[in-house]
């Protein structure tokens, strides 16, 4: 059983530009706290507009035609990504400890889930680098035509605090695999693993300027990236509210390409013919994983009428048995919420649930005074018009609703602006195929939940975002297609 | 890519010669590497042949025996096929493994080979005779790259979901074919092994591989690495043995699902027939060539001479894609000939373990005699011997770099694959003429054209019936780019994404649904 690194000292707290560590232009720093204890972990340099400008200059230079990065064999880009994966494996304990301290997530989860996904993602895209292929195309006329799949250029990437290092890998891997250069802003709540990754990026041998890491705040550094006239593309993962700002900023500035991974209010549909205990367990982890702080959280559990009472009873039991505590200690299931703002928002929504008439089965408030821990909470008899049924809570609060028929549940599941994921539990092949086809969601799980793998594309319908991450599909988002047509004297098939 | 590998591995040297290596960049080799493995490798175990027979493998630089190697025959092939079939059973560890983990195993194999580069290069040079500087800086690194390339494909080889008519959900699975027989040649022992194992294992097949009797040693060492890095037993089985016995047993085996063969066109015919006579196993073939190398008058003369020299003489002339018909446009013929002769005369022939050596011995006595026979025919049929033409040393199988001029298309040396350091230079006048003459062969493996003119380059490359056409370069290979022959040079493609097709069975699954929606 892996153990957290004791007395971990934070090594990297500066801004990473051009493979060097910089202080902020403004001189300002940001505090970084441990949400489990409230302690100050360290201060980190705070990037703002000027730092973004510096980083863009560096990334642009690294992208120049004829630069080491542009001239590198694609297979060598892949090799660098694989080396980075090796280094992450080497530093896995350290990264997992840092991640748990900075984000409050359970250490063993960080080690076995977040870090494993990080390594696998880097290796997966390491493998794609020299397999990104254009085509030769039989156009009409005396021409030889082919496409080049070129990198887009300088890519701005803004990532959230719920899976800091994993989100970092999801963003840089496809971007670098396709030959882009990157400016990445980790969340202000959780910059530490990103900065350690910066150090490994340099150690792996990426040329200067290829990856630049700028800790900072959304309204300042994030906004500077979204509005920048010399950034060619922006990828953002975070709330739908900010996603809209990013899209507007792109339209307002240079029409940079935009991909967004936003929120969700994901339906998890449980039919009476499922394996009940298994479905309860999957629905439970589908909601409560990562303290409920997942865009994929199955936060509307639709249960068929005939098994509803039993399902609610078992779900509440499971929730009550959750162990809260120090994320570094084995045996703890749930850590704190990330910060005070999230904590307050979740409690407010819990109160709305009570006020609007949902039945509180368990939990319903803070775990203790002066901390960011919230009791695992289950609401039953939730109706579709309640706030807890419509708004993304991003906390350990499960909503269980009743349904009667297939068509009804499909219609209700789809009645949302979101469309990120969905689950279906049934043994009936027809129901499984019908419902999964009908749901407006980028990922549909049948008899499982949160089953993710690097090879499989991930992304949202509707206001849950646009574009896909992971899998081969992600490559499209980091590629510009150039068609080249050469006049020839005689075309032959 | 061979050339690029050389220039990137070594410090830049002025002048374009590919074969002058800075001794400082390559470690001094041991000329007597120890042989650790000389038995059959079945089910991750080392075994004697059922018959207990063994055969000698020879050092072609000296003619001396290196060691005895267990000789596989039909009974051993049966054992290996059983092991491979068991490893391929539905529900086996290999079948159940995550595709990404198959990729990881291939990656680890690449790492282990990279770790043992110096030793493998020594063993390859000892058994095959190719210069150590080349084994070290070309063969082994290309092996590593090929395995890493296919490691990357393992979890990216995707089927499709398909919008067919009717209330159906339809998709394809890209499944492995099953037990794959692979028969590889002696000219690039390690590299040919990697070209075969990479795509076969990435896609989830199991393998029974017969290695060439002239050069079994490096493949057997790699077998030990295959076990070391963790491939399950039975996934790869390696059998040293003879073509007519072990090779034939594989080609006619009723429980081998596919055979991939690289070697002579003559044996290629036999393999195809054997498949038809047995269980219709899928067949892919990489056979011989008589590849045309066309030099237009506007070519960069120095580059063209050097590349043409490399195109023929690389690997002692023992390349299926050797540029063995050099067509030179008449207006530059004399100058090209003069420079080519000068270059051939300066080619350093000698002990392959000497880092200055460019050309080692031919692989064995049979090849040695055959090549000398072709040289005789050239003289007899009236080609003009410009340099070389005979034996280069008292022992071992060394032949002088040889050039024939005034070669006519009908001569034996212009039609048959020599597989030795014998260059044929022919004269042509016009574009249309040379394309026609270049295509006038049963082969179709590779071709090249040297010209500055974008239109000529395109016209010729479109017109040549060859699986690879190089423009202003030769022998550029990459794991990413498909390689294979038209006509008698073979069927199917190796390398690249295309290489995966030959190791895949596509299964279409169609499920009835109550209501199909787009």
What do you see in this structure?
The complex is a heterodimer of chains A (493) and B (518). Chain A has 16 helices and 20 strands. Chain A has helices at 49-62, 68-71, 74-90, 92-103, 107-128, 164-177, 192-204, 218-227, 240-252, 276-288, 308-320, 340-355, 387-390, 406-414, 429-438, 473-476; strands spanning 15-17, 20-22, 29-33, 40-45, 136-137, 143-151, 154-158, 181-185, 211-213, 233-237, 257-261, 267-270, 300-304, 359-362, 377-380, 397-403, 421-425, 443-446, 465-466, 479-487. In chain A, the strands form five sheets. Chain A has a seven-stranded mixed β-sheet with strand order 14-15-16-13-12-17-18, sandwiched between helices. A six-stranded mixed β-sheet of chain A has the order 9-8-7-10-11-19, with helices on both faces. Chain A has a three-stranded antiparallel β-sheet with strand order 5-6-20, with no helix packed on it. The longest helix of chain A is centred in the first third of the chain and has 22 residues, at 107-128. Chain A is globular, with a radius of gyration of 23 Å. The N and C termini of chain A lie far apart (62 Å). In chain B, the strands form five sheets. A seven-stranded mixed β-sheet of chain B has the order 14-15-16-13-12-17-18, with helices on both faces. A six-stranded mixed β-sheet of chain B has the order 9-8-7-10-11-19, with helices on both faces. A three-stranded antiparallel β-sheet of chain B has the order 5-6-20, with no helix packed on it. Mean pLDDT of chain B is 95; it is low at 1-23. Chain B is of the alpha/beta class and 518 residues long. The interface between A and B is medium-sized, with 31 and 32 residues.
């Amino acid at each position: 059983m892996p153990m957290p690194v004791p007395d971990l000292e934070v090594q990297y707290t500066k801004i990473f530009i051009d493979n060097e560590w910089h202080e902020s232009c403004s001189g300002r720093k940001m505090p970084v706290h441990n949400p489990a204890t409230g302690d100050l972990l360290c201060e980190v340099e705070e990037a703002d507009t000027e730092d973004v400008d510096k980083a863009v200059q560096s990334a642009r230079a690294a992208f120049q035609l004829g630069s080491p990065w542009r001239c590198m064999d694609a297979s060598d880009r892949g090799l660098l990504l694989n080396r980075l994966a090796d280094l992450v494996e080497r530093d896995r304990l350290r990264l997992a400890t840092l991640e748990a301290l900075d984000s409050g997530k359970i250490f063993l989860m960080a080690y076995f889930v977040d870090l494993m996904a990080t390594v696998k993602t880097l290796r997966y895209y390491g493998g794609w680098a020299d397999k990104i292929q254009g085509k030769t195309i039989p156009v009409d006329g005396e021409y030889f035509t082919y496409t080049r799949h070129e990198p887009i250029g300088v890519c701005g990437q803004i990532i959230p605090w719920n899976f800091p290092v994993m989100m970092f890998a999801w963003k840089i891997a496809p971007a670098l695999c396709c030959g882009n250069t990157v400016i990445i802003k980790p969340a202000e709540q959780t910059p530490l693993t990103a900065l350690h990754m910066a150090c490994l990026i340099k150690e792996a041998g990426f040329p200067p300027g290829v990856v630049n890491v700028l800790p900072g705040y959304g309204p300042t550094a994030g906004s500077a990236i979204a509005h920048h006239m010399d950034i060619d593309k922006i990828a953002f993962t975070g709330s739908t509210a900010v996603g809209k700002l990013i899209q507007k900023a792109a339209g307002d500035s240079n029409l940079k390409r935009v991909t967004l991974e936003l929120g969700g209010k994901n339906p998890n549909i449980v039919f009476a013919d499922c394996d009940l205990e298994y479905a309860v367990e999957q629905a439970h982890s589908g909601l409560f994983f990562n303290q409920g702080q997942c865009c994929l959280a199955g936060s509307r559990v639709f249960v068929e009428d005939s098994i509803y009472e039993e399902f609610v009873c078992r779900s509440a039991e499971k929730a009550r048995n959750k162990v809260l505590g120090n994320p570094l200690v084995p045996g703890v299931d749930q850590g704190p919420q990330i910060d005070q703002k999230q904590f307050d928002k979740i409690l407010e929504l819990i109160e709305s649930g009570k006020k609007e008439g949902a039945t509180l089965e368990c939990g319903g408030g803070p775990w203790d005074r002066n901390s960011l821990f919230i009791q695992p909470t289950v609401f039953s008899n939730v109706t579709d018009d309640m706030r807890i049924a419509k708004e993304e809570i991003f906390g350990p609060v499960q909503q269980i609703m009743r349904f009667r028929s297939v068509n009804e549940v499909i219609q209700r599941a789809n009645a949302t602006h979101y469309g990120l994921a969905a689950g279906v539990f049934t043994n009936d092949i027809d129901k499984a195929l019908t419902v999964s086809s009908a749901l407006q969601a980028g990922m549909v799980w049948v008899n499982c939940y949160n089953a993710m793998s690097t090879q499989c594309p991930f992304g949202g319908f509707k206001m849950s975002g646009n574009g896909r991450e992971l899998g081969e599909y992600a490559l499209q988002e980091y590629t510009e297609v150039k068609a080249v047509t050469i006049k020839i004297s005689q075309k032959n098939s | 890519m061979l050339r690029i590998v050389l220039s990137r591995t070594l410090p830049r040297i002025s002048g374009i010669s590919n074969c002058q290596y800075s001794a400082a960049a390559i470690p001094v080799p041991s000329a007597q590497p120890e042989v650790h493995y000389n038995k059959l490798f079945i089910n991750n175990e080392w075994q004697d042949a059922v018959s207990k027979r063994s055969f000698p493998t020879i050092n072609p630089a000296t003619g001396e025996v290196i060691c005895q190697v267990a000789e596989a025959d039909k009974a051993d092939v049966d054992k290996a096929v059983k092991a491979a079939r068991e490893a391929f059973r539905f529900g086996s560890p290999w079948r159940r493994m995550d595709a990404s983990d198959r990729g990881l195993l291939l990656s680890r194999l690449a790492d282990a080979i990279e770790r043992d580069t110096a030793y493998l290069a020594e063993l390859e040079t000892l058994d095959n005779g190719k210069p150590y500087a080349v084994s070290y800086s070309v063969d082994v690194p290309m092996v590593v790259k090929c395995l890493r390339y296919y490691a990357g494909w393992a979890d990216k080889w995707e089927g499709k979901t398909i919008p067919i008519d009717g209330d159906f959900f339809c998709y394809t699975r890209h499944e492995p074919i099953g037990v794959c027989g692979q028969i590889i040649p002696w000219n690039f022992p390690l590299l040919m092994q990697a070209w075969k194992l990479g795509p076969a294992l990435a896609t989830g097949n199991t393998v029974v591989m017969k290695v060439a009797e002239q050069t079994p040693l490096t493949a057997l060492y790699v077998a030990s690495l295959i076990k070391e890095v963790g491939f399950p037993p039975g996934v790869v089985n390696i059998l040293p043995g003879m073509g007519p016995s072990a090779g034939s047993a594989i080609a006619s085996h009723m429980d081998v699902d596919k055979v991939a063969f690289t070697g002579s066109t003559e044996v290629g015919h036999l393999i195809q027939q054997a498949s038809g006579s047995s269980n219709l196993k899928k067949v892919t073939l990489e056979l011989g060539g008589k590849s045309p190398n066309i030099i237009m008058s506007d070519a960069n003369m120095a580059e063209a001479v050097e590349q043409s020299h490399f195109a023929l003489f690389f690997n002692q002339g023992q390349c299926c894609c050797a540029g063995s018909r050099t067509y030179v446009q008449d207006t530059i013929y004399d100058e090209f000939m003069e420079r080519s002769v000068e270059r051939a005369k300066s080619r350093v022939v000698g002990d392959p373990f000497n880092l200055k050596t460019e050309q080692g011995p031919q692989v064995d006595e049979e090849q040695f005699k055959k090549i000398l026979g072709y040289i005789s025919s050239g003289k007899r049929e009236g080609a003009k011997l410009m340099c070389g033409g005979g034996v280069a040393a008292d022992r071992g199988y060394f032949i002088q770099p040889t050039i024939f001029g005034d070669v006519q298309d009908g001569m034996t040396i212009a039609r048959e694959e020599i597989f030795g350091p014998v260059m044929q230079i022919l004269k042509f006048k016009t574009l249309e003429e040379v394309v026609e003459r270049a295509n006038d062969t049963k082969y179709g493996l590779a071709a090249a054209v040297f010209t500055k003119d974008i239109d000529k380059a395109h016209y010729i490359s479109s017109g040549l019936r060859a699986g690879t056409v190089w423009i202003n370069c030769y022998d550029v290979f990459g794991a990413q780019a498909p390689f294979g022959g038209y006509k008698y040079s073979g069927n199917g493609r190796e390398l690249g994404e295309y290489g995966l097709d030959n190791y895949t069975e596509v299964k279409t699954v169609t499920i009835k649904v109550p209501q199909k929606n787009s």
